[in-house]
Specification:
This protein is mostly helical. Helices cover 74% and strands 3% of the residues. It has one domain. The chain contains 13 helices and four strands. The strands form two sheets. It has a two-stranded antiparallel ribbon. A two-stranded antiparallel ribbon has the order 2-3. α3 packs antiparallel against α4.
Amino acid sequence: MKTPRDSTLRVLTIGLVLVLIFGFVATDWLRFLVQMSLATFLVVLGVMLQMRAGLVSFGQGLFYCLGAYVAGMAGYFWRITDVFVLLLAGTGASVLLSVMLGFLLVRYRGIFYANFSLALSMILYGLLVKAEVLGSTDGFNVPPSTFFGFALEGEPLKIAIFVLTCLIVYLVAFVLHRYLSSTYGYIGDAVRQNEIRVEYLGASVRSLIHKVYVIAAAISGIGGVLTAVAVGHVDPDLAYWTTSGEFVFVALLSGTANVMAPLVGAFLLELLRTYAFEYAPYTWQMILGVTMLMVILFLPGGLWSIGSKYRTGK
């Protein structure tokens, strides 16, 4: 039987072109919806990467919030507004913290890993709520971004940030797809199935999980920075457990078989939440819950499994 060719990179490239064209013709609110979906997609990629190694993080909002706050603080307190510097600062802070925390988290698995990651995220939330200099529960506004010293305003600024978001998302998805197709990516799948056999083969499970944790943190930090510069505001809710739960929700909704799966799930979540809140403002959480329940019952592999079944004919 002939193995189907992997068309992920081709589809990603075509999707990038289509989304960029869409960004120039769509209404402002719809473009913003897509932009938030792309930022969410980056964080969900981090969750997905850990799930493929058999780990579920209920605290990915920690690095999402950290990236956003570092970018916001750089602009608010130190007047650093260049978006590329903000990306480096937010990503670097996430990587640095994840390297330190990783030495502790690699010791845990299952529910202990999930709860530990959640606890760390809630610690950051508690610190930010108590920090009056950072606006406490209200947060603070992020100054408009610049590009290599060029200051844009109004619609040109929004489009520039949208284009930058699309390009970064494409680059991250491209690199992560290559990673998952490499030896380390396959070892991560093997760790999920049987850690002991992986150790017998000579690979260090703790070292691999540490790398996965750091990569996931870096990706999530980038998503946080892009959210901060797009929204123009940060607040502690970025680290709250419900935010981290949404990322897990998208990962389960979309599936983990392909890097493009969370992109579909993130966009569907934004659409579902937007229209559910508009037409059922008091029960929209229940609609999300029912949707997740239906997916778990009838599509345990996520929405992406529909396409997989169609391609394989099973």
